[in-house]
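Q: Here's a chain of 90 amino acids. Please give me its 3D structure as tokens.
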Amino acid sequence: MVLKQHFIIASDAEKEHLMAIRKSKSTNDSTRQWVATFQQFLKQEEYEELDKIGNEELKEILECFYTFLHILKGEKYKSTTLKAMRVALN
């Protein structure tokens, strides 16, 4: 009886490529999630669209947004989550 091999042996280059794809997908998913959440906040609070907001106004809006998220969840977000959100919104 011959058993099929279920796992492949990947080279270091193949492993790195697969990890880069996974990190990229994860980053893109996070970015989409936070941008959509922020855009929803802008719409709900009747702010202008994101591309029409100046830097100073954006700073003020982001402060309100961070407070809104805290209230929405009912507890503090982890610092790593907030960092990911800031990176996504940059």
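Q: Can you summarize the key feature?
A: The helical segments are 12-44, 55-73, 79-89.
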